[in-house]
Write a structure and sequence with these properties.
This protein has 254 residues and is of the alpha+beta class. The chain contains 7 helices and 10 strands. Keywords: Signal.
């Protein structure tokens, strides 16, 4: 009898604990959480607009970006035609602290076409982010590509510059997207969610794939008890990632 009572108590405790780990959100809340807040990731710089490169020694160089060398999509060397001397200069990533480039018109046009080809984008993303005329910020980071290669310095595009004080998120040029479906050539239904980013918190930077999101949830957000209560691991979806980073930042900053 005592054993049955103890077993029942354990079951109730487990059920209560599980319930605390789940939060049921309203349709309006889910729609808000699915809104994509990161900047669009671009891979091709415009050769017609002035780029700015800031070296680790503090010197700044401006010119037209005419060549970019990459490894697995990440930039490790940049060449520009100096806007004053007209000379070609090449800088490796380990020389550069940060740089500002403009996206090419060719890539912007392609991204607009891709945006229009997925119905899901209309409710979760802003078209203006695909046609931005603003400079794109790249930062020198030492990273292991896909957490498999040896650490190396690359210039990575920061895609959450407005809320990167605690968690910095960088564009993964090789990222894939979740699949959807279309009927008879109509715009795609569903899918289109980016599967991976490079994420930095504190001194740790890692390649974060959607399949590893739950395993890294506590590392990313676990030091904020209020946030964890409102957005527990069991209720969080990868689709909410940009919202969660922004919300965590705002709640941590008070």
């Amino acid at each position: 009898m005592k054993f049955k009572t103890l077993l029942l108590a354990l079951c109730l405790t487990s059920a209560a604990s599980f319930a605390q780990d789940k939060v049921k959100y309203s349709k309006e809340q889910i729609k808000k959480m699915e809104t994509y807040l990161f900047n669009e990731g671009f891979n091709l710089p415009s050769p017609k607009k002035t780029s700015t490169i800031i070296l680790k020694d503090g010197s700044a160089h401006k010119g037209f970006c005419n060549k970019v060398e990459t490894k697995k999509g990440q930039i490790y060397e940049v060449s520009i035609k100096d806007s004053i001397s007209k000379k070609n200069e090449a800088f490796s990533a380990d020389q550069i602290s940060e740089m500002y480039l403009y996206p090419s018109n060719v890539e912007k046009i392609a991204k607009v076409a891709k945006y229009m080809g997925n119905i899901r984008n209309f409710g979760t993303k802003k078209l203006t982010k695909n046609t931005t005329g603003e400079r794109i910020h790249f930062v020198n980071q030492t990273v292991s590509l896909k957490n498999k290669k040896e650490d190396k310095e690359f210039l990575m595009q920061l895609i959450n510059p407005d809320f990167s004080e605690i968690i910095s998120v960088y564009h993964d040029p090789r990222a894939k997207e979740t699949g959807g479906f279309s009927i008879g050539g109509s715009p795609q239904l569903g899918g289109g969610v980016i599967k991976s980013y490079y994420v930095k918190k504190g001194d740790k930077i890692m390649w974060l794939h959607k399949d590893d999101f739950e395993d890294n949830y506590d590392f990313l957000f676990g030091d904020n008890a209020e946030f964890m209560k409102k957005y527990p691991k069991k209720s969080a979806e990868w689709d909410y990632f940009s919202f969660l980073v922004n919300e965590y930042t705002e709640m941590s900053n008070g």
